[in-house]
Write a structure and sequence with these properties.
The structure is a homodimer. The first copy, chain A, is α+β, with helices and mostly antiparallel strands. The first copy, chain A, has three domains: about 260 residues, BirA Bifunctional Protein, domain 2 (2-Layer Sandwich); about 110 residues, Anticodon-binding domain (Rossmann fold, 3-Layer(aba) Sandwich), CATH 3.40.50.800; about 70 residues, Translation Initiation Factor IF3 (2-Layer Sandwich), CATH 3.30.110. Chain A contains 13 helices and 23 strands. The radius of gyration of chain A is 25 Å and the shape is globular. Chain A starts with 16 loop residues before the first helix and ends with a strand. Strand 5 of chain A pairs antiparallel with strand 5 of chain B, so a sheet runs across the interface.
């Protein structure tokens, strides 16, 4: 943690959200910019957060019968082109390798924008019979897509850390169940660990993954009123198994094309944590995924250091026993005030101050990052209190985020309504839709908002039964929003 | 595990080592070939082995104060070129990205052959004062180097999984200590976990890492008599800190260039496990890193299945309590003989057979993969015996490998000796060397052997005090060998 320059954030979150975000992620030491435009570097603090998220998800994938594997970064152009829609969706973003050393390659190689084509060319070799199914494989890697739009760290980058899962099944029902199982795993992790509520449902045909039958999604709402797609889980049907010839001999002794799914989450989740929970002082880490859950600051003048530091390390050792991720900031070169500020920018959920007076009075001072609340805690109660405080902070973050989401789902009964809401307050707007892509496109062009999600669960607020744009009978009630 | 077709290996290890190796890694389900020549895919079983190794190393790196981070895949040509020797060493192997979508890039981007240049351009921004040092960062990623020579899975590929550590220090002594600390961590892990003995020492100037002051190495000996470089740890001196301007303000209030190290191990270690421990039946996993340590086979005829399988799962649950990685192969579609063969090819160290007769006699049958030994074990002793057997197998593997290594370090007192040993039996050959690169190069040209390592520890066998090639006074006694 020694290499950050924590100076406070100089803008307010609700005054200049975009600048606040940039400062929060840079000054907390999560990221830095890479030399190539659109690419970022994850510094140790940022990577530790990614490891926390990864560790939790990975365990859940394994518990549900998925296995990890590794695929190379490079995909031959001919392979990428085998599924037509998929290829045309990705080619504008592909980085092409054309030379190795001084030699021109005979076929261009794409930097993996996603691994469907590469994985499925292998799956077709690995699968022969129903005995080989289901095949459920996950890859922790990066995807590389040349971003032409404005980039934003974690949210839109030319390379991003993610996981991509790919499964193959002998029947459609099992594949569809897998799509939903994964969506539930994502939603539970994002809500329980990242403390971010999401709305789940379908993407419209226009917004679905290129090559999928349908795409399910979790949509989150950032505190500037813009939507963020947090996770997607796709039913691929037989759209890839046919061009890639993923066939199996069934129990009926006939050959069948397999049914497939793919799904992924990326380091976008880190961006969401920052946007949803952060405040004017910096980021606030949800305790369950915080790389450092408790920071202990020994406060002392010359001559008192040894005793105070020793007490601080005693407490740290006690907390470590409980598997709390704790650090002591015992650096002599910085003042306590400077340290408070640094750890606040970094969003460590709980700070414990201890000085000579506290030692005399057999106590410590707990400071909550989320509320700023300060409480003296008896030395003997430090462990149990730390656990309680961390739980309390986690609960407070999710309850705040849920309240914000609920308050910012509104309904629009007519097109003027929709435009006015999107212009003035943003957020998620429920509105009737006839199902025609023309209305969807026009709304997007005129308001900048698209269909984020067609919710699975009926939303409480009642909405007019006609299409918000054309006035025809509405077939469904999607959520419209401007989005990242 | 459902997607392999385990047919036995059709050649003997000591008759056709190369073909045996290819069959062993393919038929065990460790790897498959990727569509681009020279690239491979790690299948779930292979990736699980990599995760075992990674997990152990990662914990040790963290215990010794290293942090993980993430760097992008692409490096601008100008940055790669900033350290001249380094650049000229890598350019013949670089894959170049020249286009994004349809757009020609203004500067070519290299696929990361190694991250020194990219990391150090960032370190120079992150480091300002002695307070920011030491900086100790590790990256788990892949390196991409176009292999022009014949490729071999795990041993020589155009992309490989590895970790690369990069540290920055305020003085040379600390950097040199780091180089040795890491070499020791590697050696201990490779010996204690992979059961492979290595000889540690220096690379010659000709063989060192391009850009390093010196390179330390661990050399292993494969059972075909060829050497394999298992791990390297480099002292970079100030060779990179000067061109990359990694400077810090010292306690003396003066500016200094920093001292640096870099180090790495790759999935080569998997290739070494296969080569060193495997036998005619397939691979043999060292228990400490085996993805599956114990496989339980319920053996039954029609009608007996339920009872036998239930016993098998009882045992598995008991072993899981002890954190043994265990699986039950309860598939109905395969015969027991077929299963035995499959798990032998995959090298699961311990197999437990259980059938109706065993249940009646309150016992199980233990079968060791390394020796083939079969023993009946009372049901009540299964847990403690499994632990003992796994320890015993681990010990047996390292003791065998050590014996092989000792028997295959020989000495050459003159050039004819050296040529004859290299031609007939291979292995490691100790021979005097004057230190002149001309002798080193001629020996390589004439025998195919190079200097693998100049050992730190004096080797027991006494060697002539003259250079094996030119007859001048020897300055050191390196190990010569043909190598992968």
């Amino acid at each position: 943690m020694s290499t950050k320059r924590a100076t406070g954030i100089t803008v307010k979150k609700n005054e200049n959200f975009s600048e606040w975000y940039s400062q929060a992620i840079l000054k907390s030491g999560l990221v830095d910019y890479a030399p190539v435009k659109g690419f970022i570097v994850l510094r140790p603090y940022g990577y530790a957060l990614w490891e926390s998220i990864k560790c939790k998800l990975d365990a859940t994938f394994k518990e549900t019968g998925h296995q990890n594997a590794f695929l190379p970064t490079l995909i031959p152009e001919s392979l990428l082109a085998r599924e037509e829609h998929h290829f045309s969706g990705f080619t504008p973003e592909v980085f092409w390798v054309t030379k190795a050393g001084d030699n021109q390659l005979s076929e261009r190689l794409a930097l993996r924008p996603t691994s469907e084509t590469l994985a499925y060319s292998l799956f077709s070799k690995w699968i022969a019979s129903y005995r080989d199914l289901p095949l459920k494989i996950n890859f922790w890697n990066t995807a590389v897509r040349a971003e032409i739009k404005a980039t934003k760290p974690f949210i839109r980058n030319s390379e991003f850390l993610w996981q991509e899962g790919h499964t193959v099944h002998s029947n459609e029902k099992e594949a569809e169940e897998e799509v939903m199982l994964i969506l539930e795993i994502y939603q539970k992790m994002i809500e329980d660990y990242l403390a971010i509520p999401t709305i789940r449902g379908l993407k419209s045909n226009k917004e679905k993954f290129v090559g999928a039958e349908y795409t399910t999604t979790l949509e989150g709402l950032m505190t500037d009123g813009k939507a963020l797609q947090m996770a997607t889980s796709h039913h691929l049907g037989q759209n890839f198994s046919k061009p890639f010839e993923i066939k199996f001999l069934g129990k009926d002794s006939h050959e069948h094309f397999a049914w497939q799914t793919s799904w992924g989450v990326s380091w976008r989740l880190i961006g969401a944590i920052v946007m949803v929970h952060g405040d004017d002082k910096g980021i606030i880490m949800p305790p369950k995924v915080a790389p450092i859950q408790v920071i202990i600051i020994p406060i002392f003048r010359d001559g008192e250091g040894i005793q105070v530091k020793s007490k601080a390390f005693d407490i740290a050792n006690e907390l470590k026993q409980l598997e709390i991720r704790v650090q002591v900031d015992d650096r002599d070169e910085y003042t306590s005030g400077w340290k408070f500020n640094e750890w606040e920018v970094q969003g460590v959920p709980l700070r414990i101050n201890i000085g000579p007076k506290d030692i005399r009075e057999d106590r410590t001072e707990f400071v909550r990052r989320d509320t700023g609340e300060k409480v003296f805690i008896k030395r003997s109660k430090v462990s149990e209190s730390a656990i309680l405080f961390l739980e309390e902070i986690q609960k407070n973050l999710i309850s705040h985020a849920k309240k914000y989401l609920e308050e910012n789902v509104t309904r629009a009964n007519n097109y003027d309504d929709l435009k006015s809401i999107l212009e003035n307050r943003g957020g998620f707007v429920l509105a009737g839709w006839c199902g025609d892509e023309k209305c969807e496109i026009t709304i997007k062009e005129e308001t900048g908002a698209d269909i984020r999600v067609i919710p699975f669960e009926p939303q409480e607020k009642s909405v007019s039964a006609t299409c918000v744009y054309c006035g025809q009978q509405a077939k469904m009630v999607p959520i419209f929003a401007k989005a990242y």
